[in-house]
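Incident review: delayed structure delivery

Summary: a single-chain prediction request sat in the queue longer than the usual turnaround. Root cause was a stuck worker, restarted by the on-call engineer. No data loss occurred. The affected request and its eventual output are reproduced below so the record is complete for anyone auditing the incident later.

Affected input:
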Amino acid sequence: MSQPSSADLRRSVLATVDLLRGARFRYMIIGGVAVGLWGRPRTTLDVDFAVLTDLEGLRRLSEQAKHHRFRIDREWAEWNPMARETQLRLIHGDLRIDLLTPADEHDREALRRRRVKAWHRRRLWFVAPEDLILQKLKVGRPRDFEDALSVFETQKGRLEEAYLLRWGRKLGIVEELRYLRRSGLDRG
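Output delivered after worker restart:
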């Protein structure tokens, strides 16, 4: 896939939101697009959504997506049999759209705490900055740590520290949170 333009990204995000709203699914934008809202914008080759649904809901979304100019990424589904039950990958234009169901209690709590934000003259649901930091630290890849640090530095002074610590303990990522704080203080 080629590098999508910002117009392609906007069109794909808004088309996905329209699909999810039309199907009456609770959603929030996560991943790189959310990092761009709460932290420092960066290039992304895909768009990630958390969707409050189950396997049957993903199947219904898959059927509805076909009628809204989305393609189902069947090759991805074939190569990722375990993920098929918790994730649907769509293609819109040149962008991959990943629709993920909640993997744990924190993901369900994050969907309850989502925030509505203006984005390209529309009001969309985004993951709260604290939950984005926690999600990125749960994954633990270097790019995810950089994303978490970006959000932490940009939102410093506005984050619910007690919430971060409570979930950090539950998720077993307290040391990662401490390291994030130290890194943010060193750079800021």
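Verification: The beta strands are 27-30, 46-51, 71-72, 87-92, 95-100, 115-119, 122-126.
Action items: add queue-age alerting; document worker restart procedure.
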